[in-house]
Amino acid sequence: MDDIAAAANVSKRTLYSRYGSKTQLLIARAEHGTQRHLKAITVDRRSGDLRNRLLKLCRKMLDAALKPEVIGIETLATWIFERKLEAQLSIHRNPGASLIQDLLTEEARVRNIEEDLPFLAAFIFDATVTGPRARILLRKDLANTARAKTEHLAQTMDLLARAVPLLEPELQHAPKR
Description:
Radius of gyration: 19 Å
CATH topology: Tetracycline Repressor, domain 2
């Protein structure tokens, strides 16, 4: 706390009055970091079909998930969840899946297709972000290059589209709002 107070140019007393405890300071840091990185992940909801919008969104999330700062925030979030302190968080457990679900919900409404969107969004997130990230950082069998990531994501999306009607390209000709 002394080092944090010094770096922030405030007293330790000010830190404790603002955050209440070390745990609350860590929770605030996890939320702030998550929100800061999520703001940078945007996709134009009106340009292109659902597949291309999802590919752009997932690529941005994968690139962000590979940043050392995001890995640190994830480690901190894991610490918070392991101590069952998530009730004190304002962020979702998987904000990336929430971004995907927003795109899916919009498309499902336009095309009047029923799907289990929370499950599908989490599945797409795992297939396009969690899995490739593990392959890049841990297994090291996927190169951390633009080309390798683009090819992997396109292949993954093609596979998913064969199984999920909402993602099928030939159905994506419905007029957009």
